[in-house]
Design brief:
This protein is an alpha/beta fold and 508 residues long. The protein contains 15 helices and 20 strands. It binds iron/sulfur cluster. The site of iron/sulfur cluster has 14 residues, from helix 5.
């Protein structure tokens, strides 16, 4: 039965995880060209562009969070969907084994990682029948950081800075703008939003995510929705949230709106936020052999032109000469000399730690000495290599999830620097001041770029939490990040949120 089907799906997953489609590349290329290269947002976009090129060149994951694989499959009448579902699951496990997907499927009760991305609810596979003779498979890999910034509004409602959102298209516009503002850099901006007007709470979110299968440059066939899409794009990019929430001219690269009928009593606006690492691709396969006949979203081309070329590619990450070298163990004096906006280059030992490690450290002593240490919010993709390990993707994860723990961990164990993305809240800001520590914002999604800053894996602790959640001991060199929260009570995230909030007021 369809002998090439399994291999075709593995190819689809691999390409989706490692090579952005042309429409996303074009939007990100525009963002790179619009921003001045020496600004914080400009530096972030250069790293992102480099990362996109590196991922495509080595067939490595663009971002270490390869997300929730979501397949939309259209089959001819009579096709065996049970068999295809089994093969798609097999392909997901194989792509995980090959390091194209990070093991991301976790038992919600025990916290145990299945290790192969299979489990109840993962991957997500939706089937539909159609009259065509071929099989079409579309795939989106949407990570946790941007998934956590999704938003759903029940209208009428009151919104910060925007006032009342009524059950009108004006109200819909306000909700979308509010969601983009609220996301700031946490979902690795610049992002794109898929939106559903109406439906119920469940179908609304599903239809919103389905909008992300549209290309960024298409035109909505409904002129009323097309008008709102254009208005949101214009206004969202005036908010100056910018790349990674660093302030800048591109905050949103796409807005796609659909509508479903609703109950008279309900009016939901559901917003699915996707990050710049907008991994979406599709294939059409022969219904008798399973071989790929056509790649979707690629406009007939199979190659991807580089994001950076010529001098820009050679220059890469733009150093200004003002970068501050940091090497653990870091002293109180060094930390106190750092201010918001400083770019640092971290070298030496770094320990990873995310949700499971933070929860663990609240109840147990750390497995390593963390005095003066650098803690990296990261769940890398790591493959066994001989007797050791090789990191193949290692960008930062969203830090705000550790807000309940971070200040206490700084106080108890003497950590001096926390690397992550999206920033943290008031409790951590106070903790940084009290304990003498800084928050360093790395560029979210730049998994290939940062993997190349890791010279070797020197050890691993707490492996019982699974690969992404374990505490990896990494030797890094010239790992660039920006001080966005310092030990003097300053936060760039707070500043940008307030400034963009003031602009939002003007769109009431
Ligand atoms: S780019 Fe950012 S939001 Fe997107 S999957 Fe990666 S870490 Fe998550």
């Amino acid at each position: 039965m369809l002998p090439a089907f399994l291999d075709s799906v593995v190819q689809l997953i691999t390409r989706t995880s490692t090579d952005l489609p042309p429409d996303v590349r074009a939007a990100m290329g525009m963002a790179v060209r619009t921003e001045a290269p020496q600004t914080r947002a400009g530096q972030a976009l250069t790293i992102i562009a480099q990362n996109i090129d590196q991922a495509a060149a080595c067939e490595g994951p663009i971002c270490q969070d390869t997300g929730m694989p979501t397949f939309e499959v259209k089959v001819p009448v009579g096709a065996n969907q049970i068999w295809m579902r089994g093969k798609i699951r097999e392909a997901v496990a194989e792509a995980t084994r090959l390091g194209k997907l990070r093991p991301n499927s976790v038992d919600s009760i025990t916290g145990e990682n299945s290790g192969n991305n299979l489990g109840p609810g993962t991957p997500i596979i939706h089937f539909d029948q159609w009259e065509d003779a071929e099989v079409e498979i579309k795939l989106i890999l949407k990570g946790g950081g941007c998934e956590n910034t999704n938003a759903q509004y029940a209208l009428p409602t009151e919104l910060d800075h925007l006032g009342r959102a009524d059950r009108t298209l004006e109200g819909v516009r306000k909700c979308i703008l509010h969601a983009v503002w609220k996301a700031q850099g946490k979902g690795c901006s610049p992002g794109a939003v898929g939106v559903c007007v109406g439906g119920d709470r469940t179908s609304g979110y599903l239809h919103a995510k389905e909008q992300l299968f549209r290309t960024l440059d298409d035109t909505n066939p409904d002129p009323r929705l097309a008008e709102i899409e254009a208005a949101v794009m214009d206004e969202a990019n005036k908010l100056s949230v910018g790349a990674m929430g660093f302030s800048g001219s591109t905050s949103l690269i796409g807005c796609k709106i659909g509508a479903l009928n609703r109950l008279p009593a309900s009016f939901f606006v559901s917003v699915a936020y996707d990050c710049w690492a907008f991994r979406r691709l599709g294939i059409r396969v022969d219904a008798t052999t399973g071989a790929i006949r056509e790649w979707l979203y690629r406009e007939g081309t199979t190659s991807s032109p580089p994001m950076l070329s010529g001098e820009a590619a050679a220059a890469g990450f733009q150093r200004t000469g003002r970068e501050v070298p940091l090497r653990a163990p870091i002293s109180d004096e060094q930390i106190r000399s750092l201010k918001v906006g400083d770019v640092v280059l971290v070298s030496g030992q770094v320990f990873t730690g995310r949700d499971a490690v933070h929860a663990h450290l609240m109840k147990h002593e750390p497995p390593v000495d963390l005095r003066g240490a650098v803690l990296y919010h990261c769940g890398p993709v790591v493959l066994k290599e001989g007797a050791g390990w090789k990191v193949t993707a290692a960008g930062p994860t969203t830090s705000i999830r550790e807000e309940p723990y971070q200040a206490e961990i700084l106080r108890r164990y003497g950590v001096r620097a926390v690397i992550g993305k999206g920033g943290m809240g008031g409790k951590t800001l106070a903790g940084l001041k009290e304990s003498g520590a800084v928050y360093l914002n790395a560029i979210g999604g730049a998994a290939q770029f940062y993997a190349r800053c890791i010279e070797r894996v020197t050890g691993v602790s707490l492996m019982e939490f699974g690969t992404p959640e374990a505490m990896w001991h990494l030797e890094v060199r010239d790992f660039p990040a920006i001080v966005t929260m310092d030990s003097h009570g300053n936060s760039l995230h707070k500043e940008v949120e307030e400034e963009s909030g003031a602009v939002l007021e003007t769109f009431r």
